[in-house]
Amino acid sequence: MAVVGALVAMVMMAMLVMLLHRGRPKLANSPDPVQHELSPPKPTLLTDYISDDYGLLATAAVARTHADALLIKEHLRTAGIRSTLANAPDGQIRVLVFGDEVVRARRLVS
To answer: Is there a single domain that holds both residue 27 and residue 62?
Structure first.
């Protein structure tokens, strides 16, 4: 009886090894021409990692200095528009508002 149990355990382990081996990802250094053609280029600069996507927020204004951005933000706050600041990769400061208020905010700051 113990022999049958050991045999069943070995068969189950062999099946488990086969299933896990099938789902194993390829190593990074193994060439796969199809995957290589489809994969995007790897970013090499810090600015490649920075995105202009701010989710639900849109750019209402762009300021050169932090003080100017704070003045714009205060002006929007007095009009009842919530805003936040984001540093752009080019050194400018973006004043961001929610997308449904971006037209009104741009009119106020222009």
So the answer is: no
Whether 60 and 29 map to the same domain: the answer is no
| pTM of the shown model | 0.54
91 to 9, 62, 94: CA distances (angstroms): 64, 10, 10
Reduced to 3 DSSP states, what percent helix, strand and coil does the chain have, rounded to the nearest 5? Answer: 50, 15, 35
Task: Read off the DSSP letter of residue 100.
Answer: G
| CB-CB neighbours of 34 under 10 Å | 7
In this predicted model, what pLDDT tens digit does every residue of 23-40 receive, in sequence order? 555 555 555 555 555 556
How many other CB atoms sit within 10 Å of the CB of residue 70?
14
